[in-house]
Backbone:
């Protein structure tokens, strides 16, 4: 927790916490966490994508590697725990096991990814996708640091990846539990929707003759609320934007998520049909533009069961839950099995300076993760 406080003081903006990809603040963060990794007996390096890597080599020749970690970058005006808690929890667990003299049959690597939030280039998972080797030409065309492709690691190198993260939701708090095992990370559809109507005088155009773009958008906002999965309109831009003018154009963003891709895509299809019906009824022109599609990721059942057993052995109820937010585990799932452990956070608040976790909950997470690592000795590797 002290390390979270110290790391949380490193920012590129005065008065608030912001660390973006390849910024001087991120380099300082890597230097500080790298110092802690060395103190724990890990060998430390930074790869071509600015991911920070602390390695504990096994004595067994030809051993594969298990990855632990999360990200060290932040959103703008962030809290201290989204991402960094997972890196520092992994480091604490590794340090604990080394102090106990544990010998592992695999290499253990603690990673602090350089870009999960995508603030600088709007490219989520930039650090972890560079390591996984899944960056596309379109991704590289948007960034200056083309050399990050050299961070790619060989397929087949990793036994798996585990990530500890604050829940970013209120479920664990509701059940009064410190940690929970994640079963899946929701897929996501992001869309831009434009309603084009006719601007007019608020005092002279009768209600039944209006082509009010905002009224149409409002109907879609309510439809998103009732779409059967997680549907969010996070942004509305109304033009011309005067109190005495009927809105002639509205841009809105639509975010639809679910851990079941078929259910998510069906909800998007229903919303599209609803938007077309609204536009026809109100005499509006509709533009429906998909922005991003991300498939759901299901956590490895064997690894998740390992986490569940480690939680149960501490006398705790095992709560299994899905993640509505994306994580570096999504990128790593392309090359190895993944698992996640959520830590309770106050009020489910994240992406906010008010992010808060209890030291007692973090202690549980460190101990569960340490047990998890020890029990991985017999884990059967999946070949990808």
Residues:
């Amino acid at each position: 927790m002290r390390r979270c406080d110290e790391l949380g003081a490193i920012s590129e903006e005065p008065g608030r916490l912001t660390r973006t990809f390849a910024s001087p603040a991120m380099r300082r963060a890597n230097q500080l966490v790298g110092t802690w990794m060395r103190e724990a007996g890990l060998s430390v390096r930074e790869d071509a994508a600015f991911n920070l890597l602390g390695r504990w080599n096994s004595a067994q020749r030809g051993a594969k590697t298990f990855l632990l970690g999360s990200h060290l970058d932040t959103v703008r005006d962030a809290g201290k725990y989204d991402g960094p808690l997972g890196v520092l929890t992994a480091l604490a667990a590794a340090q604990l096991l080394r102090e106990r003299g544990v010998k592992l049959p695999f290499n253990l690597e603690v990673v602090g990814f350089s870009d999960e939030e995508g603030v600088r280039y709007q490219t989520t998972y930039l650090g972890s996708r560079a390591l996984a080797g899944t960056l596309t030409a379109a991704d590289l065309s948007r960034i200056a640091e083309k050399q990050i492709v050299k961070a790619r690691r060989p397929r087949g190198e990793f036994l798996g990846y585990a990530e500890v993260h604050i829940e970013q939701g209120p479920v664990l708090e509701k059940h009064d539990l410190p940690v929970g095992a994640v079963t899946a990370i929701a897929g996501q559809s992001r869309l831009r929707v434009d309603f084009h109507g006719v601007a007019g005088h608020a005092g002279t155009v009768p209600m039944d003759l209006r082509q009010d773009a905002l009224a149409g958008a409002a109907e879609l906002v309510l439809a998103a609320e009732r779409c059967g999965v997680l549907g969010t309109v996070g942004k509305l831009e109304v033009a011309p934007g005067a109190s005495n003018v009927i809105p002639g154009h509205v841009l809105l963003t639509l975010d639809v998520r679910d851990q079941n891709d078929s259910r998510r895509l069906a909800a998007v299809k229903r919303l599209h049909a609803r938007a077309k019906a609204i536009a026809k009824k109100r005499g509006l022109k509709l533009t429906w533009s998909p922005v991003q599609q991300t498939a759901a990721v299901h956590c490895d059942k064997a690894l998740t069961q390992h986490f569940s057993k480690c939680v149960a052995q501490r006398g705790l109820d095992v709560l299994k839950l899905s993640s509505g937010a994306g994580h570096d585990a999504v990128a790593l799932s392309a090359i190895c099995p993944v698992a996640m452990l959520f830590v309770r956070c106050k009020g489910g608040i994240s992406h906010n300076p008010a992010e808060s976790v209890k030291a007692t909950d973090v202690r549980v997470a460190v101990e569960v993760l340490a047990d998890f690592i020890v029990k991985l000795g017999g884990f059967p590797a999946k070949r990808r």
Q: What stands out?
A: DSSP finds eleven helices and 15 strands in the chain. Residues 380-384 have pLDDT under 50 and may be disordered. The first strand starts at residue 43 and ends at 46.
